[in-house]
TrEMBL record:
CDD domains in the record: DPBB_RlpA_EXP_N-like
InterPro entries per the UniProt record, alphabetical: Expansin_CellWall (IPR051477), RlpA-like_DPBB (IPR009009), RlpA-like_sf (IPR036908)
Protein name, per record: Expansin family protein
Signal peptide interval: 1-20
Source organism superkingdom: Eukaryota
Amino acid sequence: MFRIIAITFVLIASILSVLAAPATELEKRKTYNGKATWYVAGLGACGDWDDGKSNNVVALSRLRWFSGANCQQWVSIEANGQSTYALVRDECEGCEVDHIDLSEAAFQALADLEVGELNNVKWHFMPRGFEPW
């Protein structure tokens, strides 16, 4: 009985460690397709930065967050025939895997806030060290 419990524990721990691993460089080259919503940015899960309304920031789903490994990573976002960049500064607890939550400024680069939600949003990570402006 102890052996079955030990094997089950090791199996669950292995699965959880794979799910929590940071994105590989190949994953970061992938283009994701999901929806985008907006929120009032402030002090996000990356800590140390209070982003306010004027900064282009993005909150990633828990499944793309990777325990904060993607903090300070720029993301390129396309929707509605428009494009913008946003900096990962937060985690979106209620977002599905490829759903991104944008600051007001980032969302307004793609559509009016009144729209509330955009579908068919394409986004991908930019290389580390990338600076859009």
